[in-house]
Structures are given as C-alpha cells and as structure tokens.
Amino acid sequence: MNLRFFSSRTITWYMAKKFVLTSLGVLTALVLILQTLDLLGESGNILAYPGNGEPQLWQYVSLRIPQLIQRFLPFAVLLGAIITFVTLNQNSEIIAMKAAGVSAHQILAPLILASLFIAGLSLAFNERIVARATATLTAWEAADYGPIPKDRGVVSNVWVRDGDDLIHADQASGRGAAVQLTGVEVYDRIGGTLETIIRAQSARYDRGGWLLHDVRRFDVQRGVETTLPSLTVARGVTPDRFTLANVDADERNFAELRVAIADLQAAGRPTEALEAGLWHKLSGPLSSALMPLLAAVAAFGLARSGHLFVRAVIGMALGFAYFVADNFALAMGNIGAYPPMLAAWGPPILFFLIGETVLIRTEE
C-alpha cells in the first residue's frame, strides 16, 4: 500500500503549475468581465459628481477589483480544478498515473497543496488590501463619489437614539471615556412631538452624560433660541454607541474586528453577527483548499465512456452547492440563528466530509 502523500516531485510540480495557471486565467477572465459590467452600471453615478472624469473611473476600478477578486477567487479555483482534471483525463494522464500505482489522493495532493498556497495569499490579500478598499469605497459612495474623506480613525455622521430623543454628531473620535464629539445636534422629543433642538460645537463624556460646549437651544413651541456655555444631556448613553455605531465586518481586518467585538461585548451589546464575520475571514479563504476535493469527481472515469461531461457537471454542482450552503450559514449567523463558529466552519467541514466520502467510495 502506497502511503506517500505525493507520488513524485515531477508529477507534483507539473499538476500544481497547470492548476495554478488555469485558475489564474479563469480568475482574470471573471474579474475583467464582471468589472466591465459593474463599471458600465456605476459610471453614470461617478461622472454625475461635478469634476469627475476618467481618473475617478480608474480610481473606482482600483477599489472594486480587490472586492471582485476576494469574492470570486474560490469560484476560479473550482473551475480551474475542474478544467485541470478534465484535461488530464482527456489526455489519459490520469489513467497513466493510476496504472503506475498512484492513488486518487496522491493525484489530488498537488492541487490541495497549491490551493493551500492560494488560500494563504488570499488571506493576506484580504487583510491588507480588501478591507481597506471596501472601507474607502463605502465612504466614497456615501459622499456621492465626491472627495474621499481621509481616514483618521474618525467616525462620521453618527446617529444615536436615546428613548424618544435623537442625537446626531458630525464626527466622533477617540475610544472609551475619551471620545470627543463635534457638530452635535440633540432632537428632544416627547411622545413623538419635537420640543427642543439643541446644537453644540463639541461634547465630551462626563460622569455618565454628555457635556455640551457652546450650546444653542431652540424651543420649537415658543420659537425662541437661547445660548448656554455648557449643558449636560443624554445620561446613560455610553461612548461606544457613537464610535461603534457602524461596525462592518467587511471594512475591518481580523485584528481590528476583534478589538471592535471586544469593545461591544464590554458594553453589553450583541456581537453574534460580527463574530460570524470574524471567523469567516479565516474560513472564506480556506474554502479555496476545498475546491479541488469537490472537483475531483471530474478526474476519474474513462473519457471515452461519455460520462466525463457528467462528472464535470457533478463537480461543478458540488462546488456551487458549497457556496450556497456557505452564504446561507453566514446569513443565519448574521441574524443569530446559528452560533458564529457553526456559521463560519460548518459548511467547510460538511463538504470536506462529502468530498472525501465521494472520493473514497468511488476511487479508493
């Protein structure tokens, strides 16, 4: 019984190189087509802002392409594995390897190794580039494709509800009790009726409330405005409600998201959806290593039997079934129906067992 993981260095290098180049070609074609279609649909909105032109279109492309690569890399790996296996099967290379005593797992091993390398690159790419590009593009879209606000760790345009009252801040900066607000507006409502509008240049957290400075208070019923040097409002509204009001898992890397989740948990706020997104930052890239196993059904069987196309379709169906299950589990995790760990790691483990079962029962 042959227990070696790789059959030979030559076969390993040959198959891994063929697989990586094929997957790269598929990914390039997918990204080019999808980016062209996306740009056609969004170019009108970009050019609608006065002064925008071709440089802004290229800027949009530079921010959108990382998102497309992240989303469709596992698809490209799946299709690359299927094309590689079908080509090897049609050229009778699979038959030659099996005749030489190479097992099905040894035939699959070079692609698994290459896909693990791709998964590592994908993880680093997502952490270093995709999260930043997503945050920048979101801010640019919020500005209607005007000048992109510089990222200084400042949260802009924050709304917080305190009972019937609404509090708006143009900017919130800092962490914990050191949070500072600028451009503050407080809409004091009683029973849904607006009673008072309070505006202040700045505010800071002070003894359980928010101390406003340079205050203007407008009484809606009387139509009278008064000025005050300071005023304390919104007692019980904690600073994290301003700084963590809009935490998006896609816009933060793994370390930043862990810090945000810890802050939210310390404030007693629900974090299940963010925890699912946190673990999916690891399980998502690693799904690329699962694709060759799901596509392996296309590697075996006689090409002249006429079943090769059916096998390729089955491999593609298994891959796409995984993506459906992964998106469904993540959606269930976001609404709290699934535990975060199950939402992120359940589909990869399930489909790994399915792929191994199919491979062992049919080929080993």
Question: How would you characterize this protein structure?
Answer:
By secondary structure, this protein is α+β, with helices and mostly antiparallel strands. The protein has two domains: 9-146 and 274-363, no CATH class; 155-238, no CATH class. The protein has ten helices and six strands. The chain has a six-stranded antiparallel beta sheet with strand order 1-2-3-4-5-6. The longest helix has 40 residues, at 9-48.
Briefly characterize the structure.
The chain has 364 residues and is an alpha+beta fold. Helices cover 58% and strands 17% of the residues.
Descriptive keywords:
single chain, 364 residues, alpha+beta, 6-stranded antiparallel sheet, 10 helices, 17% strand, elongated
Number of helices: 10
> Largest beta sheet, briefly?
6 strands, antiparallel
Query: Could you state the oligomeric state of the chains shown?
Result: single chain
Q: Whole-number radius of gyration? A: 27 Å
Write the layout of secondary structure elements.
Layout: H1 9-48, H2 54-90, H3 93-99, H4 104-142, E1 155-162, E2 165-173, E3 180-190, E4 193-206, E5 209-219, E6 224-233, H5 240-243, H6 254-266, H7 272-286, H8 291-295, H9 308-334, H10 340-363
Antiparallel strand pairs: 1-2, 2-3, 3-4, 4-5, 5-6
